[in-house]
Specification:
heterodimer, A: mainly beta, 4-stranded antiparallel sheet, 11 strands, B: 5-stranded antiparallel sheet, about 0% helix
Chain lengths: ~120, ~110
C-alpha cells in the first residue's frame, strides 16, 4: 500500500489550454474526493465518487471541470479552457466508507499544483 | 452547506508556549475531525471526536468537542517547531474549515 498517488505534482499551462490530473487511491478504498486549495486556505470540495458513481458535485464548479472514475479505481480531473483563477493545489483523497456514523478518515495525496499563466 | 469557521487564522508563538485554536459552526455535527497539513503535502488526520463533551489527548495535543456538538478546540501544550502547519477541522464528508496556520519559532 503506497498511499494516494497524484500526478503530475506540478503543472504549468497557458490560459485557455486543457489540463488533466490523475489520482490513484488506496486500492481497497471505495470513496474518492477531489478538493481545490489556495494558499493558506482550507480545502474546497469539488466532487466525490463512491466506486464509479459520481455522487455529488459542488455548485461552485463550472462546467469547465469534469471528473471521472472509470471502473471505480483511479480518477481523472479535467479542466477545460483554463483561466488564471484556476491556479491552485488540487488534492485527491480516498476513504473506506463504513456503516458507522463517524466521518470516515480521509487519506490525501500530495496534490497537483496548477499554475495558469 | 454546513460552514465551519476557524480562529485565529494565523498564530505565531515561541517554542515551549501553549496555544489553542477553535472550530465553530452554527450547525450540529455528528462528528468532527482535525487534520494537520504541512507545506506541499496533503492533510493528515489527527483525531475524530464523536461524543458531545468528549476530550481526546494525543501526546501534547488535546482535542475537545463541544457539548452541543457545534464547536471544537485543539490545545497544544509546550509547542515545538514540528507542530508548525495548517490545522484544519472537518465536520462532514464535504466541508473543511478555513484553517489556522500555526508557526512555532525555535
Amino acid at each position: 500500500d503506497t498511499g494516494v498517488s497524484q500526478n503530475p505534482r506540478h503543472k504549468i499551462t497557458k490560459r485557455g489550454q486543457n489540463v488533466t490530473f490523475r489520482c490513484d487511491p488506496i486500492s481497497e478504498h471505495n470513496r474518492l474526493y477531489w478538493y481545490r486549495q489556495t494558499l493558506g486556505q482550507g480545502p474546497e470540495f469539488l466532487t466525490y465518487f463512491q466506486n464509479e458513481a459520481q455522487l455529488e458535485k459542488s455548485r461552485l464548479l463550472s462546467d469547465r471541470f469534469s471528473a471521472e472514475r472509470p471502473k471505480g479505481s483511479f480518477s481523472t480531473l479535467e479542466i477545460q479552457r483554463t483561466e488564471q483563477g484556476d491556479s491552485a493545489m488540487y488534492l485527491c483523497a480516498s476513504s473506506l466508507a463504513g456503516t458507522g456514523g463517524a466521518t470516515e478518515k480521509l487519506f490525501f495525496g500530495s496534490g497537483t499544483q496548477l499554475s495558469v499563466l | 452547506t454546513q460552514l465551519l469557521e476557524q480562529s485565529p487564522q494565523f498564530l505565531s508563538i515561541q517554542e515551549g508556549e501553549n496555544l489553542t485554536v477553535y472550530c465553530n459552526s452554527s450547525s450540529v455535527f455528528s462528528s468532527l475531525q482535525w487534520y494537520r497539513q504541512e507545506p506541499g503535502e496533503g492533510p493528515v488526520l489527527l483525531v475524530t471526536v464523536v461524543t458531545g463533551g468528549e476530550v481526546k489527548k494525543l501526546k501534547r495535543l488535546t482535542f475537545q468537542f463541544g457539548d452541543a456538538r457545534k464547536d471544537s478546540s485543539l490545545h497544544i501544550t509546550a509547542a515545538q517547531p514540528g507542530d508548525t502547519g495548517l490545522y484544519l477541522c472537518r465536520g462532514n464528508k464535504l466541508t473543511f474549515g478555513g484553517g489556522t496556520r500555526v508557526l512555532v519559532k525555535p
